[in-house]
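Objective 1b. Sequence-to-structure analysis of MCM C-terminal domain-containing protein.
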Amino acid sequence: HALSRKVIVIDEAQLLRRSNVRFDQLLAYKYDHVDAKVVVSGSQVGLLYRFLRAGDPDAPLFGRPYIEVRLGRLSPEKSREFLIEGFSQEGINVGDALVDKAVSLFDGVIGWLTYFGFTYSRSKEQPEDVFRKASRLAAKEASSVLNTYGIAKRRYAEVLRTIASNEQARWSEIKRGVEARLGRIPNNALANILRNLVDSGLIERGQTGYAIPDPALKNGVLHHFSGL
């Protein structure tokens, strides 16, 4: 077979759930008939699980063995090491103050630390300037995600704004915030919005409420969502 001993990489695989093609069935066929490795990755972990139907006995991929790798947030120490090693490989000397500022702003999010390192190595832009760019980019990407919810997009955006305005937003605070701007929202509709936002990776649920874990996204929602 042409794919034998090959590695197939599918990035942002959760987007395939919108297709009319049953990609989970294709992957299951690969497992059974083709000697190839498959790497499936995605930034929206909850939606990725939905697409793969992980744990569903009726899903085509149920029972197939796999290895899961999760990339969490780096600690401040690991963030410093990550940036310093990256700059070293690029032959760029940077001061502690610049690295510390970047570590503080991007709060261990690997993607944004990489974005800062790449941008600084090309243009020498300061961490604050790169953070503003990252915030606009994060807001634009989030808006694109919300477009999939059609006329409900305003509710989703308002939920994000309310959560971004708090360190940990409780259910009651979110409901009051949304209803103050958009009118009454049924509890089941709000529950569905929160579940979808968690699955999309835009928010996370903690012990005391909901929060936006990505600092660039949080800043972007607060300052670049005015058009929604």
